Sequence to fold (282 residues):
Amino acid sequence: MTAQLIDGNALARSIREEVAGRTAALKARGIHPHLRIILVGEDPASQVYTKHKVSDSTATGLDAKLEVYPADLSEADLLARIRTLNADASVHGILVQLPLPAHMDSQKVIETISPVKDVDGFHVASAGALMTGAPGFRPCTPYGCMKMIESIGYSLRGKHAVVIGRSNIVGKPMAMMLLAQSATVTICHSATADLGAITRQADVVVAAVGKRNVLTADMVKPGAVVIDVGMNRNDEGKLCGDVDFEGVSKVAGWITPVPGGVGPMTRAMLLVNTLEAAERQS
Ligand code: GUN
Fold:
């Protein structure tokens, strides 16, 4: 079997077009959706990510501004800045780029963002809303993965979905979103005894570990849907995911590539969350 590709670039493009249309409609009513991004320090990867977030936003018609602070900014000053932005009605979404410098408590910083502006979906209130099915922002990466599964017309009801990885940002919210669609969900992690024995039972596998070749062809049920969240470099320095793409694509029914899979969808879902933040606050 040769798996069908789920094209994250194409799907992200269509989502951006939809966001652009809804943004234009809001602007016609005098509401300018506005994302404020805070970057503390000079981490090169964070500088690139935040620049992309601003350019994605502005290309879609959203307003986005990046505030950059030195790495020695005090936590108290950062919290004060977030509180000011919480109170600013012209700012609809607030994103503090992670990782933060070691002297800051990231969770405390995230909890200071108003949940109505928490477009990353990292606030404990957003996590609780996801767990209980209440309205709230969904973390962008698992939200994008769900859109990819939805895009192939796949019903998750009664299917066995296996998530590899238990992070607060991807693994846990991913499991909750799959559960909300009535999948039977298993979360695997570094202490899982026999990963292959579990993934071989899976109709859907989401690999979100951050390690190459976590999922190989012998670990996949023929026809399964395989979503690769990983972003790694191989020995030649080329971008690759957590999945052995070449081997697994011969067994799976559908597979997401890296690059061109989950990455562009994560970026697109931030735009959706920002737009929806503005819609809800207007
Ligand atoms: N650092 C890496 N990915 C992310 C993300 O999605 N949001 C934030 N705030 N920081 C990140």
